[in-house]
Amino acid sequence: MSISRGAAEHDSGAGTGTKAPIVDASPARNFKPGFVAKIILMACINAFGLYGLLAAWSTGTWGVFAGLVIALIAANYVYFSRRAIPGKYLYPGLLFLFTYQLFTMAYTGYVAFTNYGDGHNSDKGDAIEQILSYNESRVEGSAAYPVTVVKDGDGNLGFAIVQDGVAKVGTAEKPLEDASGAQIEGNSVKGVEGFTVLPFAQIVENQQEITNLRVPFSDNAEDGSLRTQDAMNAYQFRSTLEFDKATDTMTDTATGDVYTANGETGFFTNADGKSLTPGWRVSVGFDNFTYMFTDSRVSGPFFSILTWTFAFAFLSVATTFALGLFFALVFNDPRVRGRKFYRAILILPYAFPGFLSALVWKGMLNERFGFVNEVLLGGNGVQWLSDPWIAKFSILMVNLWLGFPYMFLITTGALQSLPGDVMESAKIDGASPWRVLRSIILPLLMISTAPLLISSFAFNFNNFSLIYMLTGGGPNFTGSPLLIGSTDILISMVYSVAFESGVKQYGLASAVSILIFIMVGVISWLGFRQTRKLEEY
């Protein structure tokens, strides 16, 4: 009787006291689902990464392109290398840290040293193109093109014309190009593949947008653009300015004025000081940081806002902590009945979103129709939100209403964790309640709550939502070029400078943001040093 070789080897292993390994060559048993899942995951990551690389390449954003290359290489190394097993868990967090924290901080620092803002949004090449396109006039004697208004798949309006017997179509973003397969009747286009011809009713609805639309003839801005005033005939428009790359100047062909590029201001400026807009981004050094101190129209309001910011943050923490501690002491006494019910009632203001509560209080403090003036004060017209000092008082009171439940919660927890034998010994020694509070409860309480008070100070230092929703920063300062007010704090000033002051000044707003970061960092560092002293005490 014959015995297979595998069985014989297995039996021989049994004779020696060891089992010979049984190897199953079946592919189904060696299948590893985890490895396949890893391959699918990395395929998806690389697909999205390549899409991002192509998008960054097409728009010329080389910084984003380089960052994506590094992130993609790191992801492939971490998830396919056995030497980087811990990195599989650290990589996502580090990627988000670099993207949303470190990059944002670095870019804010870069913007703070530039004139980035309205009129200086892009580089010099884009500024030249925009200047040439903004200063266009109809070319004298240019042909009239029967125009067809069309819309592409993305909803962008465009023009279709017949030029030298060839149908051409373009939008504001894409210059005129040959339209293969277009339907032509006479000298006009009746249909274009990939575009929808607008009927008369839609032309009337979009009249303003159509008359403002300019479709470039080519990628060269000096070739001009196609424009229409009646959606029936279009004409060639060309810039009245000519750019000389050799001398870096713009010349107005109508007046003869010469505008020279100024690398310090980011404008083309003539001899009379007149500038062409838009400009371009240039480095301004520390001008954004010194502007708040050197311009008399801004320095006064800035120092007022700076003082109020510190006062608001300190008083907010002090008042909410005092009121929260008072209620915590009262309802921590076992002699008070219904403590659970009262504690639940006291934390209700903390349960509502802060910005909604601020809006409700804004309505209640309305000078003419508010509940406080009309009902509680019998029609008295107290200017709760329009007088500078009363508005500051109103903000502190509303913030007290919003903030004391948080302090009530943390002080209640801290009180319940205090050692009972120490409290009992103090009472036996005849210490008064005030002495117990001052010498025992507060020192022990500050050890656990001091870090929370520091974080609360930092939060109120940047409490944008309360200021914005309640007063909007007003009443505004008069004579200031910036739209800032008496109740603004530094962070709401940053928002106003960046978005609401007419001319958006992102460079100046970034500089103030850096100052806020430094101030909060220094104050937090000093506060934590004092916290360590309390622990030693």
Give a description of the structure.
Helix content is 55%, strand content 12%. The chain is built from 19 helices and 17 strands. The longest helix has 36 residues, at 296-331. The chain starts with a helix and ends with a helix.
Ends apart, CA distance between termini: 91 Å
What is the subunit organization of this protein?
single chain
Overall structural class, as computed from helix and strand content, comes to alpha+beta
Helix segment tally: 19
Strand content: 5-15%
The shape, in one word, is: elongated
Write the layout of secondary structure elements.
Elements: H1 5-15, H2 33-59, H3 62-80, H4 87-112, H5 124-134, E1 136-138, E2 145-146, E3 148-152, E4 157-163, E5 166-171, E6 177-178, E7 183-185, E8 188-191, E9 195-197, H6 200-205, H7 207-212, E10 215-216, E11 225-228, E12 233-239, E13 241-244, E14 249-252, E15 258-262, E16 267-269, E17 275-276, H8 287-294, H9 296-331, H10 339-346, H11 348-351, H12 354-364, H13 371-376, H14 388-416, H15 420-428, H16 433-461, H17 464-470, H18 490-500, H19 506-536
Helix pairs in contact: 2-3, 3-4, 4-19, 8-9, 9-14, 9-16, 12-17, 14-16, 15-16, 16-19, 18-19
Q: Which descriptors would you attach to this protein?
A:
537 residues, alpha+beta, five-stranded antiparallel sheet, 19 helices, 17 strands, 55% helix, 12% strand, disordered N terminus
